[in-house]
Amino acid sequence: KFSIGSDNIVEIAKAIADQCRHAFFDQCDLYFTPQSFRGWRREALLKRISAWYVDIDTTGHKSGHDADLIEKQVLRAVRRADLPAPHAIVRSGSGGCHLYWFTSLELTPANKRRALQEWRSVAHWLTDSINQFRPKSAHWTADASASHDPTRQLRVPGSMHSCGVKATASVLADRAGWARYSFSDMVALAPLHQATPIQQSLF
Predict the structure, then answer these.
(1) For residues 91-127, b (16+ Cβ closer than 10 Å) or e, as one string?
(2) 81-120: per-residue pLDDT in tens?
(3) Four-residue CA torsion sign, 142, 36, 12, 167
(4) Which of 2, 54, 128, 182 has a CA between 20 and 30 Å from the CA of residue 117?
(5) pTM of the prediction?
(6) Are 56 and 96 in contact (CB under 8 A)?
């Protein structure tokens, strides 16, 4: 488990690649948190917001689905919803995937409450929009409970899923480039979203 502490996403990509190459290729079900914390991975200890992410789960959390098809359908939904292009996509190994939009915002006692509300507003916008343009026949959905949690851990690229398939990462540099998205710009793009019933119970 490690946190992303750098402001340079090229450094982040290299750091994750090095960690994967040296430690994770033969290990199973390993996770990392995209955010930075002061100590334990708790919302009260959040230090910096470094990303939004959308966890794409397969129907019934079952493996064996066509990962190529799911990735194409998800990215097509992103385009149809006119969302900002994600920086990277990680295939989790079970057929699902994780999409990442990198940003950077240092949290302080003065801005933390509002920043977390705004982060969740963007997270709702991303998942709701992707699910809205999800094909009716698709065997996946954008998981709100994972994607709306700023303390979430996600699978490490290069590690093995328990189903026996390695998680792999692709950097979508041809679409988003290496610049982080401005936190305030993403917030301005996102319409207001009401928390779903599951989120009301979690947060």
Answers:
(1) bbbbbbbbbbbbbbbebeeeebeebbebbbbbbbbbb
(2) 999 989 888 887 666 888 999 999 999 999 999 999 999 9
(3) negative
(4) 2
(5) 0.74
(6) yes
